[in-house]
Amino acid sequence: MGRPKGSIDRDKQAAILEAAILVLSEQGARASLEDIAQRAGVSKQTLYNHYSAKQKLVEVLVQGHQVEVQTSLLWPDPFSPPEETLAQYARVLLSQISQPSYRRALQALVRALRDAPEQAQRLHRATLYPSIARLAQFLAVETARGRLAVDNPQAAAELFLDL
Known about the structure:
With 163 residues, the chain is mainly α. Helices cover 75% and strands 0% of the residues. The protein contains 8 helices and no strands. The protein starts with 9 loop residues before the first helix and ends with a helix.
């Protein structure tokens, strides 16, 4: 029995995402899905079946980084002091941005979206806003529990992520 239409195995998925980072960081907005497919060693049809547009591929790259970063806030240890959870969140953020693959991905995103301000703004809203909302929710919950004293969780979350 084969895979469902449009699905690809994990190795191909990883190859596509790594190729996307490399090609987008090298070529920016002029990179094509064909270029990415060639670098990944997959057919153009395989790539088009899973990612109908370059924007969709960029969104998947960003979402992958978001999940990694937000994990410590999604399932915080209820017995750990909130300061420890926040410190762990900051460590994950710093660890991620210091990774060469993250820097390549960020460079790729900037180059790919430099000439597409509407897409860049949409991607910014789709990625940063959920991070701020999740952090603000964590701060509000911990304040309600009496473990933190945060007057404005939204503003505090924005400031935390700005740092």
